[in-house]
Amino acid sequence: xxxxxxxxxxxxxxxxxxxxxxxxxxxxxxxxxxxxxxxxxxxxxxxxxxxxxxxxxxxxxxxxxxxxxxxxxxxxxxxxxxxxxxxxxxxxxxxxxxxxxxxxxxxxxxxxxxxxxxxxxxxxxxxxxxxxxxxxxxxxxxxxxxxxxxxxxxxxxxxxxxxxxxxxxxxxxxxxxxxxxxxxxxxxxxxxxxxxxxxxxxxxxxxxxxxxxxxxxxxxxxxxxxxxxxxxxxxxxxxxxxxxxxxxxxxxxxxxxxxxxxxxxxxxxxxxxxxxxxxxxxxxxxxxxxxxxxxxxxxxxxxxxxxxxxxxxxxxxxxxxxxxxxxx
Length: 328
What we know:
This protein has 2 domains: 2-154, ATPase, nucleotide binding domain (Nucleotidyltransferase, domain 5), CATH 3.30.420.40; 157-319, 2-Layer Sandwich (Nucleotidyltransferase, domain 5), CATH 3.30.420. The protein is built from 11 helices and 15 strands. By secondary structure, it is of the alpha+beta class. The longest helix is centred in the C-terminal third of the chain and has 25 residues, at 248-272.
């Protein structure tokens, strides 16, 4: 049994043979909820409360509503108890049984990959026990997972595998696989760049930036809105930005802020990829691709730029295809 999980700083994505899940990458300290009418109607991923390694947590969107969630931006996040709680909670969402033996494929940001892959793999291998708890923190359902093998990839390379591999891990686009393929992965807090040549990872042209993700634009919008009399924290802007809620002053400033953010990212891209004119394809992916992709594509001004559809899941789908190639 194979599971693929992309543990991003903004969202967690997971895939198994029959399921796909996505939820906010947030962890908060648990406290009992005294009045729960209405919660029973929510989907499981909207009310994740777990006990893992002796600690209780709110996970995902409920962490925003019921606690003060933490999003740690350093390398300790992945191997910490909270980071592992996110990973094992995702296995619960993908599970068909309360006990499963599985092989896991996941990823790390480019700049953390070399230094962290061995310790991360060690922390994931073996048996993990977790309990879904009720709002009162007591009753719940136990799950156990035995992770027998782990493969860890640089995160953006999942997008390239998604483009060139079929569902069984076979190469379905030989011409594309032979080319120089670049990925611009725009996350909530980070931007990752990756280049491959005939599917070989080009280390010198692959890097990470932790200060120019899409959240940087959210902070600018929040500051501008506050000047106009609207006090909305950056974390609460998502539904307005994705147009599930309307806010006229935000509509007036979105275009300017996104264009400015795209220009910041573009300056880093040009410095890292001075020879981008020679690339056969540049894929723009990640959660920020939907918001900034058109601006970047226009500024890059080349025909080889492609904005990935369903871009938040692209890396994870590539992981799963590659896992089928490795494990069959």
